[in-house]
Amino acid sequence: MNLFNQALLRLKPALEHISVSDEFLEVIRTPERVFQFAIRIKSDDGRVRVFDAYRVVHSTLLGPGKGGIRFHPNVDENETKSLAFWMTIKCAVAGLPYGGAKGGVKVNSKSLSPQELERLSREYVRGSWQLLGEDSDIPAPDMYTNSKIMGWMVDEYCKIKGSFERGVFTGKPLSMGGSLGREDATGRGGFYVLQTIQKFLGLPKTGARIAIQGFGNVGASFAKIAANDGHKIVAISDSSTAIYSEEGFDIDAVIAYKAKFGTLRGVTFKDGEFHETPHSTILHEDLLTMDLDFLVPAAMEDSINNKIAENVKAKVIVELANGPVTPEADQILAEKKIVVIPDVLANSGGVTVSYLEWVQNKTGYYWTEKEVFEKLREKMVYATEVIWHFSKDHNCSLRTAAYSTALTRLYRAYEEQK
Fold first, then answer.
1. Rounded to an integer, what distance in angstroms lies between the CA atom of residue 122 and that of residue 311?
2. Are residues 225 and 166 in the same domain?
3. Residue 206: Cβ within 10 Å count
4. Which residue out of 102, 106, 172, 232 is catalytically annotated?
5. What is the pTM of this model?
6. Is 392 a residue of the active site?
7. Is 298 left (phi over 0), alpha (psi -120 to 50) or beta?
8. Residue 106 bridge partners (DSSP)
9. What's the total number of domains in the chain?
10. Are residues 172 and 55 in the same domain?
11. Tens digit of pLDDT for each residue in 192-230?
């Protein structure tokens, strides 16, 4: 089954708790626009290289399309459609006036020079600018894209348009209208959700054992915030390796090491310093199945399949990645009474602060970082409380509660627009 059809499977459990029309379901199952195009750039050595690129708008029932652009070798149409669908649900869960969209380029961006990366970024805009707009389709950073890349893109867009419309991209540099607090918004939002769930579950506020799969911007931000709040990060992985420390890692040191060397491969942590020995290296599967309070998958889709799920021992899973738990694994985890905080709730902090950035761009009034964090916390806590109470009232999982809530809001908009 392809990823998009797998994503649509999440609708079925929700439909047991709400009533919507068949024609609405047909609309939700079908993206509004799927655009594929080719990007051609000249390499530093003079060769012309061609890359497949995509932009999908899944729904505009609640507002303009909203979703990131990723640069990754696995990008394809089905993945982009799936991510756009999840963005539709995510924005509805968070109560944002957005629909779902997503974009990407099939490329190993690590193989590009900074000059080639800039050419690729600007060409993406040249190939898709007519689809974009601050009231129609609003991109943002995603996997292997960042504020610098958004800066190139918004600059290219404004040059083409001949006017300043910086609200068409979010996650921009501060100097170009970006918002304070955007860099760690997804990780911070996920932590606010976890804090709220901790309260409902009666779990200790500090001292939890946490493992984080994926140490990019999202995983690192979550790790730093959680560690500063008194929790113990005992295991971390990146694409090359997984490392373990029973006493917990100094997250600032881990972040500094990763920034310096680009990998956590073959390092161990002892006496406050890193050493290049393999003694703390563990298998990626071991990280996912160790005895934990909170397991935080913050890497790729389908990281936790049915085989892994059978051996998961964490009390709570916080999905900071998109779609890290397969539908089959979800059922196994539910039978084991492991609480899964779904991606469409847990990682919605990024799009929430993107919304705040968009509002600031549209009004020309900018908040302090403290104000941004307060607004983020308020929206994340409220969304979590709504989903939690739905799950208790309907005796269903948090994921089913999230999808049920989102579909209800989307269906209401659909009926009112008929």
1. 45
2. no
3. 10
4. 102
5. 0.92
6. no
7. alpha
8. 72
9. 2
10. yes
11. 999 999 999 998 889 999 999 999 999 999 999 999 999
